């Protein structure tokens, strides 16, 4: 089956429109990360993954002219830059949560250690009757 040049051009433009949509989703994800809207970011990310999978299927074997390849490369570069910034925000959040968990564990351990101090002290007179050498 041969493709008409017009249909190939239309498919290429549709593919680039998908990359544009992915960039828009990436931009929304970055805004959520900057705002520390973690639940909303996770929601956006789940849609992002689906879009990437769909785009990977559509992109296979798609012939693009020079201008279209340059446009695709530019879109991918922007997407990757935003992805790196989102990851930096996520790593900072992970570190923050790790610190909070560590503080919580230390606090719990201290509370356990000092909760019942009378049980930690051994009273010698109970263990050794009078007159025991």
Can you offer a commentary on this structure?
The longest helix is centred in the C-terminal third of the chain and has 50 residues. It contains five helices and no strands. The chain is mainly alpha-helical. It starts with a helix and ends in a 6-residue tail after the last helix. Helices cover 83% and strands 0% of the residues.
How many separate helices? 5
Radius of gyration: 30 Å
Straight-line N-to-C gap: 104 Å
Structural class estimated from helices and strands: mainly alpha
Unreliable residue runs: 1-6
Percentage of residues assigned to helices: over 70%
Count of DSSP E strands? Answer: 0
For the biggest sheet, the summary is: none
Described by the principal axes of the CA atoms, the overall outline is rod-shaped
Mean of residue pLDDT values: 86
Give me the strand/helix succession. Answer: HHHHH
How much strand?
under 5%
Topology readout:
Elements: H1 5-34, H2 38-59, H3 66-115, H4 117-120, H5 124-127
Helix pairs in contact: 1-2, 1-3
Give the structure's gist in a few sentences.
The protein is mostly helical.
Considering the chains and any ligands shown, give keywords for the structure.
disordered N terminus, 133 residues, rod-shaped, mainly alpha
